[in-house]
C-alpha cells in the first residue's frame, strides 16, 4: 500500500484511477452475491460514486416468509406465519420456510449491499436456529439485522440486546437478580462491541474486566421472551419483568472510569450500551471486522494506522452511523489496490448463490418446488460448512477471526469436492440433485454485444466468474474449448445463425452444447473460488 507523501491517518484517500470493468466487477463481487454481466456493465457505465450510492441506498423490507406447503399449519398456505403461535406440527415447515426465504433474499438482492451486510451482522451477532427453535424469533432477529444493516450501530446493539432470539440463544431470559447469568453480558463486551484485548492482569482484559462483566450482566436482568405457544402475539416477543431486575447500584471498573449504574428499570440496558460505546476501541473493533469482510484478513500495522484508524475516527464522528464508513471504504484507493482483488476465498453462501445468480438458474415453477430447491441449497451450504443460522460458535465462522488460516478454511479436502460437483451438476443434462437446477447458458450470453466474437465473449464471461484478468494462455485454452481447431468466424457465423433463428431446435442445441463446454471449463478453473 503506497500513499502520497503527507497523507495522514486522518484521511482515507479516494480512488482516482481508471474505472474499468475490473473495478466495477470487484466492487460488486464484494458487495453483492454473484453480479450478473448486465449489472456489472450498469455499474461500469454509472461510475464509482453513483454505483456506491446505489449499493448503499435504502431498500424496502421484503415481504415476510409464508406457509408454502404445510396444510396442518393453522396459517393458510400462501400466508405468513411470522406473528402466529407455533403448533408442534409446524415447527419444521416454518424453519424450512425461513431458511429458503433467507436464500431467496440473496438471490433477489440486485444492486444492493444490504443482504451482504445482513450476513455480516449475522456472523457478528451469531445465533443458531437449533438452539432458538422458533422460526418467528429467527424472522424477528433477521428483521432487526436487515433494518439496521446500514443504519446506526448503537441502535443495532440496543435492539439485539433485547431481541428474543438473542435472549434465548445467550440465556438473557435466564438472567435474573437472584440468579445472574453472565453469558450475554460477556459476549456483549468480548464479541459484539469492544473486544477482549490482551490479558494484562487477573481478570483484566485491557478494555474491560471481570468486574465489568458482572456489573453489566446485573444491569441487563429482567428481560424475557414470550415462549413457544404464547397467546401474546406480536413483535418483538419480549417483555421486561421488573420483579426480576436488579435495582441495586452496579460499580464499574477503572476501564470505564469507575462509573456507577443506578437503577433505570427497562431502560438500563440502553445505558449499558451507551457506556460501552463511549470507548474509542469500539469503533476500531467494528472497523477491523468490516475490513476483514470486505477487503482482506491481514491487518498490518500500516493498514491499522492508514485505514482502520481513519475509518474508526469517521465512525465515531458520525455517531456510529454505518453507511458513511462503508461509503468511505468502498470509495477508497485502498479498496481497489490490485493485491486485494481476488484476495478473498468465497464463503459457501457467496459461492453457491453466485453460481445460481450468474448462471441464470430458474428456482422452481411453484412455491413448493421453489422452496424445495432452496432447502436443498441450504443443505449443500451446511455440508460445506456455512449453514445460515448455524455458525459453529457465538464468535461466528472461524474464517473471519481464526489465525492464521482465515478464509483458507473454506476450501479443504472435505469442502472442495462438493463445491466443484455443485457447479458441474448445474451444467449437466440431468441438473443438480432431485430439484434439477440447471444453468441457462443461452440466457447468460443473451444480449451480450460481445457474443458474436469468441475472444470478446470469453473476456466478458471471465469478469462474470473471476476477480482478475485471465492470462493469454488461459484465454486461448478456453477458446479451444469453445471452437476446437476452428477459426473465429466459425463461431461468429454459428451464433449469428442462432440469433436469426432462435426457434430452430438444432441451431439452439448446437450453440448450447458449445457454451456448456466453455462454461464447464471456466467453472473448473481454481479462480472461480476467489472474490
Number of strands: 4
Give the CA-based shape.
globular
Could you state the order of secondary-structure elements as H and E?
HHHHHHHHHHHEEEEHHHHHHHHHHHH
Task: Report low-confidence residues grouped into runs of 5 or more.
Answer: 1-9, 228-235
Give the structural class.
Answer: mainly alpha
Describe the biggest sheet?
2 strands, antiparallel
In round numbers, the mean pLDDT is 94
Query: What proportion of the residues form beta strands (DSSP E)?
Result: under 5%
Report, as a whole number of angstroms, the end-to-end distance.
Answer: 19 Å
- The radius of gyration over CA amounts to 25 Å
Counting H and I runs of at least 4 residues, what is the number of helices?
23
Largest beta sheet: what is the strand line-up?
Answer: 1-2
Secondary-structure blueprint:
Layout (H helix, E strand, L loop, with lengths): L20 H11 L5 H10 L1 H8 L35 H17 L6 H11 L4 H4 L2 H14 L4 H9 L2 H6 L13 H11 L16 H10 L3 E3 L12 E3 L9 E2 L8 E2 L6 H9 L4 H14 L6 H17 L4 H10 L16 H11 L8 H17 L32 H11 L14 H5 L8 H12 L6 H11 L5 H13 L4 H19 L8
Antiparallel strand pairs: 1-2, 3-4
Helix pairs in contact: 1-2, 4-7, 4-17, 7-8, 8-12, 10-11, 13-14, 14-15, 16-18, 20-21, 21-23
Outline the structure in words.
The chain is mainly alpha-helical and 531 residues long. Among the domains are: 171-265, no CATH class; 441-529, no CATH class. It is built from 23 helices and four strands. The protein has helices at residues 21-31, 37-46, 48-55, 91-107, 114-124, 129-132, 135-148, 153-161, 164-169, 183-193, 210-219, 268-276, 281-294, 301-317, 322-331, 348-358, 367-383, 416-426, 441-445, 454-465, 472-482, 488-500, 505-523; strands spanning 223-225, 238-240, 250-251, 260-261. The strands form two sheets. A two-stranded antiparallel sheet has the order 1-2. The longest helix is centred in the C-terminal third of the chain and has 19 residues, at 505-523.
